[in-house]
Amino acid sequence: MKINPILKKEWLVENQKYIQQSKADFKLILKLIELISSNDWEKFYPESSNLLHCKQTIECINKVNFNNQSTISAVYIVKNERDTLLKSLESLNGLADEIIIVDTGSTDGTLEMLATPSKNDGSISLYSFEWCDDFSKARNFANSKANGDWIISFDADEKITDFKSLKLLLTYLQIFGDYPKTVFNLNIVRDEITYKTGKIIQNLPCFSYKGRVHETYFSAVGDVHYANIDIDIISQNRTTSEKVEYYNRLLLLTIKDEPLNLRWLYLYLRDNFDSIKYTQMKELSHNYLFSNSSNRNKENFKESYYNVRVILLHMYKALQNGEISDFEKYQQLISDVAYNQTDYIFLKFTLKLLRIQERISNDLEEMLIDCCEIETDNSIFSVNYLNSVLATYLLLDGNPQKSKEMFRKLFGDNSDFPCFLTISMKEFLLGNK
């Protein structure tokens, strides 16, 4: 791909007179470009307005022929999916040019069901693969059987919402050339959670899956870039304790298989964050994070996307365990590259907030001790002045009910006292008066 196929609608409309497409197909192109986005493409293929670039772009658009659509191979690996697979196949709406199903050891009649003429009109190719504790090997075997221009990987429980638009979009994209470094994400909608994951590649020999579990595409010709296609896949949460335990074993094996790629270390720590101890996290990570594990400074830190994410998990765990000095060391490692990331900002200001809370708690404790030493005297200010400050500290220290009681009494008595509450704090405390 030499030209970014994500075009602005304004540019297309402005140059419509040069575009040799019917009105219907032109409107379709305007609709399709709204489905695709890519931060990576924006970085690697900057917008250009020179005449040569515009001419090349228009030439590509004029070659788009929706009557000669790209071919798509829908690829599955399955095991004991008789009850879920048919609904996934139905969502393809007959538009997949071929369906590859690789069975890894079903005993529920999945293969027998798919072999019947009523369930298979000839578009489904069935294969068997001996399971070897490696999802990537199974998926790579399945992909090797695909003949379509594009490959889309499905799980048996997944249903795509708009396969027709996807096929039209891939037809449009293919005109702009090959995508040997791009993996296309789709939206996975699972219960209340939506996330993006790489589902589609052009059928090129450079692509292969890696990872025994939580497998992902790699390209033999360079780092993978991502583009997002705004089409949903509806999925199910079928997590069980047995599956979690099995996936954890595969993750630990993958960490040993791929020691230079911290993707799987990150996923293991993420998936087990609540149960893993901080000391275990450090023992598991530090040999992979630093080129010299005995000297864990910034110069020895192996900076990468997943290494940074591992450090973010360490920072959160350090906060939970009160290891503030560790938190600050981790913070220094990634501050230059993570300063504008949501997770980093959250952790940075969580520490600041904890310090504020600690100071408030210490101040409140000191104030209560001082109050115990009060003797009867001729004070200049009403005791309500002191009670107002105390009530404010109680609120800030996490005792809103006691604070509310004190302030309601103070305001109810119409006492003369300084109020350190903001308007919103006052509304919170006195709103139900």
Automatic annotation (TrEMBL):
InterPro entries: Glyco_trans_2-like, Nucleotide-diphossugar_trans. Keywords: Transferase. The keyword Transferase applies. The keyword Transferase applies. Gene3D superfamilies: Spore Coat Polysaccharide Biosynthesis Protein SpsA, Chain A (3.90.550.10). SUPFAM superfamilies: Nucleotide-diphospho-sugar transferases. One of its GO terms (molecular function) is transferase activity. Residues 73-169 form the Glycosyltransferase 2-like domain. It comes from the Bacteria. This is Glycosyltransferase group 2 family protein. It comes from Streptococcus mutans.
